[in-house]
Amino acid sequence: MRTLHIYSLLAVIPVFACPNNGQYQQQALKNAQCDRPNVVFILTDDQDTHLNSLDYMPHVKNHLLDQGTHFTKHYCTTAVCCPSRATLWTGKQSHNTNITDVSPPYGGYPKFVENGFNEKYLPVWLQQAGYNTYYTGKLFNAHSVNNYDDPAPAGFTNSDFLLDPFTYNYLNSTFQRKDEQPKSYEGRYSTDIVAQKAQDLLHDAVADGEPFFLTIAPIAPHGNIYMKEKSGGVGKEPMLGHSAPVSAKRHEHLFQDAKVPRTENFNPEVPSGANWLLELPQQTQENIDYNDHYHRQRLRSLQAVDELVDNIFIALEDYGILENTYVFYSSDNGFHIGQHRLQPGKSCGYEEDINVPLIVRGPGIAANYTTDIVTTHTDLAPTFLNLLGIPTRDDFDGTAIPVEREDIEAVAQRKREHVAVEYWGYAGGEGIFDSKFSFHSIEYHRLMVIETLHENNTYKAIRIAGAGYNIYYSIWCTNEHELYDMSVDPGQMHNLFPVISSNVSIAGYPLSKIVSRLDSLLLVLKSCSGEVCREPWKSLHPAGDVETLQDALAEEYDEFYGRRQATRVEFEYCWNGYVPEAEGPMWETDGLAFVKDGLPWYDWV
Q1: Residues bearing 3-oxoalanine (Cys) (predicted)?
Q2: How would you list the strands of the sheet with 69-75, edge to edge?
Q3: 25-230+238-416: what CATH class?
Q4: 3-state DSSP of 134-160
Q5: How far apart are CA 533 and CA 591, in angstroms?
Q6: Residue 603 has pLDDT above 60, yes or no
Q7: Distance separating alpha carbons of residues 74 and 95, to the nearest angstrom
């Protein structure tokens, strides 16, 4: 047996879950479910695609990129932790979970429970289908030392969760193993603890001899949040400090020369974007130097994750189950540092924040293969069920991702081309150059956090990439619009919406023609559910003859869209959570989704 980098397997297990080699194969094959595959899902926190963090993870390259399929256009639909994770586990957009923030009243674990999802999400469905389920690391924000058993997260055979307010403290974390009291790990490195707990849970999963689903969710490369002394302010509230991520001691010396990629949109001379971004000052050299340091700390913090990945693959191979196990690697949301003059953070609709890693390896998955079909976090729950032979649900907003090469190529550039992006509330700047005191409600008591809150960060957007076009279109709650042709402007620097009436074009089409289609599609998607989310063009074209933007741009539909206003999506007012009264026109509530007396909506509205 090979030796793990940090840990060693604690024991030789007498019965293996669905092996395909080794001395225990004959015994394990007696298990009636032995042909059912296992899943290991590694979910990082705030990991980027566009800052090139994967380039600094050689074990991820060796085990996943070189041996699996990389989905380069995979997107989260809400670019912040808890709403994104709720979408991932339920297969529903945030406007359908109504979990739109990291803490109450609009989000967090208490909101997840309140809205009934503790009985209606992936681990519960997996258990109902005969899978054992295991989890270690971060589950949700506001899952805390005060509410971890009120109620306990449902659907897990065994678990060992990180708990707030210590979730993001790399050197003072608190974990809670199933049915046990929380335990503090002061002075120990969080990702190494997760790695050991993952090995322990994998050991248990294999020993049980049943097919399993194991989630490993380290906090890296999220920023470090730590408890400080009580402030002298109002009520002397407990105060949290926010610093750059912390690496394991053994990685502190790495990447001394690494810098944030100096792309066109990095700290531009002219403001870019819209809304509050246009007021951001250009960063000073001192600020840039700090942000490069923040970037290096993110890369260093990911090295322990990279070792974790290596150890998991070594263990899977030693247990004889690697060939019968799917391994997924992704992140809850992306991250920006310096793009559009932004301080370190997420919560925007730009590519850095919404485009996240997704790599899949397993039975039938092509090795060293890359695809640019568009996929989203709404698709992951149905994908897991589909791969494991479990019926998917009619109320899913997403669809199963084709993961085998032949199936991927069959759908390329057709139905899989759009992402519905949405956000409510504020954007928080992290780091020392965008800070002031603000209050958050975490785990039912107030904690003062050092960060800036950029208000009115509520928006709806579409990211669409198909045959001949590559576009981002958004509407803020201030009713400002953005439109980018990312085929020629990948950094989203030149907002085309102000020149919509000019002769500027995208993919050879006038901007007004493009916007009329995108705005109509966004009107459907902003309040869709179930099948309407999965096939939104059918709401506009019930005959089913339009499946993509390219189809909708056909000249025969010019009159159809020309009878509409150039844009219809608009907000009544800005709000920090999902409040239908603030959302403006709704497709499912204003009658536009129906045909009346044989006439389409535009002839009778």
Answers
A1: 81
A2: 183-186, 172-177, 158-162, 132-137, 212-217, 38-44, 325-331, 358-361, 69-75, 369-376
A3: alpha beta
A4: EEEECCCCCCECCCCCCCCCCCCCEEE
A5: 17
A6: no
A7: 20
How much is the average pLDDT of 103-127? 97
pLDDT tier, 22 (very low <50, low <70, confident <90, very high otherwise)? very low
Give the residue extent of every domain in the chain: 25-230+238-416, 496-603
| Confidence tier at 414 by pLDDT (50, 70, 90) | low
459/480 Cα distance (integer angstroms) = 9
Residue 439, both tokens: 């209050």
Our CA angle for 445, 446, 451, nearest 5°, is 145
Tell me how far apart the alpha carbons of residues 503 and 499 are, in angstroms, rounded to a whole number.
8
Half-sphere exposure of 524 (CA within 13 A, CB side): 23
CB 50 within 8 A of CB 352: yes
Residues 131, 211 contacting (CB under 8 angstroms):
yes
Question: How confident is the model over 554-600, as pLDDT tens digits?
Answer: 999 998 898 755 568 999 999 999 999 999 998 854 444 433 344 44
Residues with catalytic annotation? 81
Give the strand pairing for 452-454 and 445-450: unpaired
Residue 48 backbone phi and psi in degrees, to 5: -85, 160
State whether residue 550 is helix, strand or coil: helix
